[in-house]
Amino acid sequence: MRLETLSVFPEVFSPYLNASIMGRAQKANIFEFYTHDLRDWTHDRHRTVDDAPFGGGQGMLMKPAPIFLRQFVRFLIRLTLSHMWCFSRQWVDHILK
User: Fold this and answer.
1) Full-model pTM
2) 31, 40, 32: which is closest to 6 by C-alpha?
3) Integer Cα distance of 52 and 7 in angstroms
4) pLDDT tens by residue, 36-86
5) From CA 7, how far away is CA 62, in angstroms rounded?
6) Which residue stretches of 28-88 are H helix?
7) How far, in Å, CA of 13 to CA of 19, rounded?
8) Could you report the per-residue pLDDT of 1-19, keeping only the tens digit for each?
9) Residue 2 pairs with which residues in a beta bridge?
């Protein structure tokens, strides 16, 4: 089984998963767990992943761009790999890294 998660703090998962039944399952190659840092997919220098709510108010909201835009483009590229003529090779290499 493969489980992937998106988080602003991906390093908090490994201590819990390594010290439990899940850790034994990972060692036995029954379970795989991957974390992805949302800040890796941002485009500003502060690596911002949250924003103020529309219309004001308390709290913060997650920006959709780091999550959806890059992953959606990756999905489209993988889906259309047989039709590589529509993308330049440099662009594909940039997105897939």
Assistant:
1) 0.58
2) 40
3) 18
4) 888 887 878 888 888 777 777 787 777 777 777 666 677 666 666 545 445
5) 11
6) 64, 70-79
7) 10
8) 878 788 888 899 888 888 8
9) 32
